Amino acid sequence: MITSLFRKSTPLNYSLVILGLVFTFFLYFLRHITPEGSDSNLLIRLVSLGLVLGTMFMANFVVKKNGISKDSAYTVLFFWLFLMAFPNVLIQPQLLISNFFILLATRRIVSLHSLKDPKEKVFDASVWVFIAALFHFWSILFIALIFIAILFHVARDYRNWFLPPIAFLSVAVVFVFISLFFNTGWIPMLLAQSVYDFKLDYFTEAYQNLTLSIYATIALFFVVSLLFSLSNRPLILHPTYKKIISAFFIGLAVYFISPNKSNDLLVFSFAPLAMIATAHIEMPQAQWKKEVVLALLILFSFIAFFSQL
After folding, report:
1. E strands of 135-229, at which residues?
2. What values do phi and psi take at 97, rounded to 5?
3. Which residues contact 92 (CB under 8 A, 6 or more apart)?
4. What is the spatial distance between Cα 49 and Cα 53, in angstroms, rounded to a whole number?
């Protein structure tokens, strides 16, 4: 029933996800609104909502453009469900901006398999990653995804290996110039974010620990499923799946290494995991198995969301 509804991308199922996202967004926002600067808070939240929608449909574009999805709406559904499980992400604009730029980079890198304009894609993706790092420093780890993609597709041309450092210098020069010219204080702020912290002792509520544990179990299930079914999938898509799996683990690395740790930092893993989950749910299997997996995920997301209001 549920899987049939989202099996094809139609205006109806996209509208359902958008309405669900807007409802959960404003419900969470209204429960956490503060009287001080409410107008500016509303503006920031609306921008955050736009970023979430942009990121969600960017992930949907990646799976459709690169043959991962069979024209379904599962990716946007999964992305929304993961956001519901960690709704505090919705009021973290810097993380949302950083994650949006990472998705722009992912879009360029995943499409590298076409070998059309590879240098432009490598350079563009590198620039997006370094811009994302200005909003959350440790998202810079996604530069590893670019080198993985180069290794898969264009390793023979040595010039491709030098494009990420050139992109770094380009972004760094512009950033330093603007920071010094306008005396913004951005450089000290960025340096303050560059420290690392592997401790996982931030839990203040039981639901944080429980939600993280269930999310880890769900992620493990989908990733293992994709890895074991990889040999049965079209050979031409293997590098694409490997890049997406790599993006997921890099997203986890950002979470583990970042200071001021919270569950919000898992946002960098949402889009890759939504793509992996889409690949699982569209895999030939008994219909009841798909229904059970999707129903359990929906139940988890709703319980996690309402427990955090």
Report:
1. none
2. -65, -45
3. 48, 264, 267
4. 6
Name the burial class of residue 101, with classes exposed (0-12), middle (13-18) and buried (19+) by CB atoms within 10 angstroms of its CB: buried
pLDDT bin (cut points 50, 70, 90) of residue 204 is: low
Q: Which residue has the higher pLDDT, 289 or 251?
A: 251
Q: Tokens 């319980």 appear where?
A: 303
Fill in the amino acid letter for 219. Answer: A
Torsion angle of the four alpha carbons 60, 63, 64, 68, in this order, in degrees rounded to the nearest 10: -150
Other C-beta atoms closer than 10 Å to the C-beta of 231 total 8
Please check whether residue 255 is in contact with residue 273, taking contact to mean a CB–CB distance below 8 angstroms.
no
Task: Looking at 69-142, list the stretches that DSSP marks H as alpha helix, in order from N- to C-terminal side.
Answer: 74-85, 93-110, 118-135
Q: Supply the pLDDT for residue 33.
A: 65
Distances in Å between the Cα of 202 and the Cα atoms of 194, 263, 309 are 19, 9, 19
